[in-house]
Structures are given as C-alpha cells and as structure tokens.
Specification:
The protein has 128 residues and is an alpha/beta fold. The protein has a single domain, classed as Phosphohistidine domain (Glucose Oxidase, domain 1, 3-Layer(bba) Sandwich), CATH 3.50.30. It is built from 2 helices and 8 strands, in the order E-E-E-E-H-E-H-E-E-E.
C-alpha cells in the first residue's frame, strides 16, 4: 500500500479504479454529460467512461461552463467518484465543489496508473 499526500480542494472520501490521463481534461465538449464518456477527439481517454472512477489528470482546461458539465455528470449519476490533479485550476475545482466530488491536488500523479485501486480520504490518497 502506498500513500500520497495532497491539498484538499473538496473534502470527502472516495474509492474506485483509477482512470489516468497524461493530458489535461476539458469537460465542456470533452466529456458527454449524458453518458460520462470522454468525447474530445484525439484525447488519450477518448471513448473511456469517467463514471465511478477516480479520475487522475494533470490539470483542467477550457471553458468555465466545464464546472457545470461536472455538475450535470453528478446529477446524471455519471460523475467520477473522485478527482486527483497535479495542479488544480478553478474550472475543475468549482465543478467538484458544486457536484460534491472529493478532490485533491498537488499529488505526484506519475505514481498512479489506470487500473490501480485508489482511495481518497481528505488529503490522503492511498494506492492498494
């Protein structure tokens, strides 16, 4: 078991299987709020579903409406269980807060791989 520490953006507990992107994610136009599938053409996660996963990516990008897209994902039961960033930015942070998605940043995301069992509890990220 490995423990990483970060900064809490939205406090909470979450666990799930990691879905890791080496590139930033833009939620508006990048993730379909009605399916939870990454639809951004050419994105490394294109075709993957974020629902119930621990979504790990360097930072967010794109329109401020991306915050609302995260909220819509949550309302549709398709949101990530948790979010881990190397460096948070306002769009994803606001989205996580209004959607109630536990989120931490300032984490060495290079230690997390897609398929890892991950839990978030406050500022602690545990890899099993």
């Amino acid at each position: 078991m490995k423990r990483l520490h970060g900064r809490v953006i939205k406090h909470g507990k979450a666990q799930g299987i990691a879905l890791v992107s080496p590139e930033p994610i833009g939620f508006l136009g990048g993730v379909d709020p009605d399916t939870g599938i990454v639809i951004e053409p050419g994105h490394p996660l294109q075709g993957e579903c974020v629902a119930g996963r621990i979504l790990v990516f360097p930072t967010g990008k794109g329109s401020t409406v991306g915050s609302y897209t995260l909220y819509r994902l949550a309302r549709n039961g398709l949101a990530p269980a948790g979010i881990i960033n190397a460096e948070s930015e306002a769009i994803v942070a606001v989205g996580a807060i209004i959607a109630g998605i536990p989120m931490v940043d300032q984490v060495d995301i290079g230690q997390i791989r897609t398929g890892d069992a991950v839990s978030i509890e406050g500022e602690v990220v545990t890899l099993d």
